[in-house]
Amino acid sequence: MDVPGPVSRRAAAAAATMLLRTARVPRECWFLPTALLCAYGFFANLRPSEPFLTPYLLGPDKNLTEKEEIKSNRLLVLKVLWNDFLICYSSRPLLCWSVWWALSTCGYFQVVNYTQSLWEQVMPSRHAAIYNGGVEAVSTLLGAVAVFAVGYIKISWSTWGEMTLSLFSLLIAAAVYIMDTVGNIWVCYASYVVFRIIYMLLITIATFEIAANLSMERYALVFGVNTFIALALQTLLTLIVVDAKGLSLGITTQFLIYTGYFALIAVIFLVNGAVSIMKKYRKSEDPESRSQVTTS
Asked: Other CB atoms closer than 10 Å to residue 140's CB: what's the count?
């Protein structure tokens, strides 16, 4: 039965009104947060119209022209950055923790980026229900708990830090190896959770130890350099292992290489830590031997 024209037009108008009302809801809900984010982005990037260094270089103290000031300003910035770089990385503890930061972060990114492909090979998603997202959430939560608990651990990181890095890097290598060789998805999930917990624990300790050996003005320089080196190493590793122009290895072979990568990190810090402990032990013995010589 046909519906009369006026009735159908009224129904269409009512439906259109309802659609407009419902269409306004998302717009009204998202307008305020979007405006706040835009305002935050604008004010966060505000900079002085003139750098504070310009009046100083153009003033009577230096008496430079604008062209000389621009050239001098660039050279001064580069010189300051280079001097800060040398001062920061001349500290052996900071260099040690920074090297571990860069190397381990490179391996961590590789494992996290390609672990989904490994899980897909172990248990294809079209054949069974998968819980990849839940595992990511659980590993993050347990990692946060481990980070909170590490504050209650009383240990001399200056003495045992390198040995700790070696031991836990070996555990990371074992977790990656188990995840790669055992063809059980639940074992892979458990190994991945252990892998992320250990990394989050160690990266927190490394961050604290690096910051403890720095002044606040140099935080951005050191953490920026460490992150840049990590990403450069990751790019190189991806080109060699994953990319079609490189070796283009299978996913299981890739994770076997990542296992060897973390094992190599463990060996490096084991040797370095053993040498450091021996040096400190000898230094502690020297005053005793000297005191015995003087008393005799």
From this structure: 14
- Give the tokens for residue 73: 């300003």
Q: Per-residue pLDDT for 296 more than 50?
A: no
Provide the sign of the torsion angle of the four alpha carbons 161, 167, 170, 171, taken in this order: negative
**How sure is the predictor about 170, in pLDDT bands with cuts at 50, 70 and 90?**
very high
Higher local confidence (pLDDT), 15 or 179? 179
3-state helix, strand, coil in the chain (%, to 5): 80, 0, 20
| Alpha-carbon span 209 to 224, nearest angstrom | 16
C-alpha 220/C-alpha 57 separation (Å) is 25
Residue 54 CA to residue 67 CA, distance in Å, equals: 11
Asked if 251 contacts 155 with a C-beta cutoff of 8 angstroms, the reply is: no
Residues contacting 78, CB < 8 A, separation 6+: none
Mean pLDDT of the chain: 80
Q: Which of 258, 117, 123 is nearest to 199 (CA)?
A: 258
